[in-house]
C-alpha cells in the first residue's frame, strides 16, 4: 500500500494524484492503481505523469466508478499501486513532437521534463488544463480546443512523433502518416482495458503485424504502422 501525498481536483473530472513510492518508472510506462479494498472492480491502468525522488504523480480522468474512487482519495489515505508496467517511450532524440489528446496528454509531462527540446501539441475537446505546467517543460506548446491537434503539425518536420489519446485520434495519426508518406518515426501509445498487466489474461490483446500481442507487456507504445486499432 502507498500513502496519498496529495490529490488535486484539477477540474470536475480530472485529478492529479501524488503517492509515496519507492520505485519510479520511465516516461510512457504505467501503474495499476486500486483505491478500494472490496468489490469486483479491477485496478485501473494509469500512466505516469511525473516521478519525484520518493513519489509518483498520476493525472487521471474520472470515467467510471474506479476512477471516481481515485478522485475521492484524500491526503494520508492508502492506495494499492503496482508497477511500473509497459515498454515506455522510445529514446527521445533529434526533433521530437509529443502529441496528446484529452487525458492522453498525461505521459508527456515527464517526457518533456526529461527532453526539454521536444515540441508539445495538446488537444482538448473542452476547457484545457495544466497548460502552464506543460509550458514550463517543453520547447514549445501548441494547444487546440475542440478541433484536431493533428492539424497543427507536419510529421516530416520531426525525426520522432509520439501520440497518445483516444482511439479515434490514434487512427487519425496512422492515416496522417500514410497520407504524408513521411519517413518520420511515428509511435502511438495505446489505451486498452487491462486486468493483470503482466501478459497473462489476454484482456488487452491487439493485432500487431507480427500477430496478436499484449498491450500491457509488448506496449502500450507501438510503431503507428504496425498495429490495427479497432
Ligand atoms: Fe492481462 Fe494485458 S492486462 S494480458
UniProtKB/TrEMBL annotation:
Cofactor binding note of this UniProt entry:
Binds 1 [2Fe-2S] cluster per subunit. Binds 1 FAD per subunit.
Annotated transmembrane regions: none
**UniProt keyword Iron-sulfur present:** yes
Start and end residues of each FAD-binding FR-type domain: 1-91
Tell me which UniProt keywords the record has, alphabetically: 2Fe-2S, Electron transport, FAD, Flavoprotein, Iron, Iron-sulfur, Metal-binding, Transport
Which cofactors, if any, are listed as required? [2Fe-2S] cluster; FAD
* Residues that coordinate or bind [2Fe-2S] cluster: 196, 201, 204, 216
Q: Which PANTHER family match?
A: DIHYDROOROTATE DEHYDROGENASE B (NAD(+)), ELECTRON TRANSFER SUBUNIT, DIHYDROOROTATE DEHYDROGENASE B (NAD(+)), ELECTRON TRANSFER SUBUNIT-RELATED
- NCBIfam families, from UniProt? PRK00054.1-3
Identification of the protein by name: Dihydroorotate dehydrogenase electron transfer subunit
Organism of origin is Paenibacillus urinalis
Amino acid at each position: 500500500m502507498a500513502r496519498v501525498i496529495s490529490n488535486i481536483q484539477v477540474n470536475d473530472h480530472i485529478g492529479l494524484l501524488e503517492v509515496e513510492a519507492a520505485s519510479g518508472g520511465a516516461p510512457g510506462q504505467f501503474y495499476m492503481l486500486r483505491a478500494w479494498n472490496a468489490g469486483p472492480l479491477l485496478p485501473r491502468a494509469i500512466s505516469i505523469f511525473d516521478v519525484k525522488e520518493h513519489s509518483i504523480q498520476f493525472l487521471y480522468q474520472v470515467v467510471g466508478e474506479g476512477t471516481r474512487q481515485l478522485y475521492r482519495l484524500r491526503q494520508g489515505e492508502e492506495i494499492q499501486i503496482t508497477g511500473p508496467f509497459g515498454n515506455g517511450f522510445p529514446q527521445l532524440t533529434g526533433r521530437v513532437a509529443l502529441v496528446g489528446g484529452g487525458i492522453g496528454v498525461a505521459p508527456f509531462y515527464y517526457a518533456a521534463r526529461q527532453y526539454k527540446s521536444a515540441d508539445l501539441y495538446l488537444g482538448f475537446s473542452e476547457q484545457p488544463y495544466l497548460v502552464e505546467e506543460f509550458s514550463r517543460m517543453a520547447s514549445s506548446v501548441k494547444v487546440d480546443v475542440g478541433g484536431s491537434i493533428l492539424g497543427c503539425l507536419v510529421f516530416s518536420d520531426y525525426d520522432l512523433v509520439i501520440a497518445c489519446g483516444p482511439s479515434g485520434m490514434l487512427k487519425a495519426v496512422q492515416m496522417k502518416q500514410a497520407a504524408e508518406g513521411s519517413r518520420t518515426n511515428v509511435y502511438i501509445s495505446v489505451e486498452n482495458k487491462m486486468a493483470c498487466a503482466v501478459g497473462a489474461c489476454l484482456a488487452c490483446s491487439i493485432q500487431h503485424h507480427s500477430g496478436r500481442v499484449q498491450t500491457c507487456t509488448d506496449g502500450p507504445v507501438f510503431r503507428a504502422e504496425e498495429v490495427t486499432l479497432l
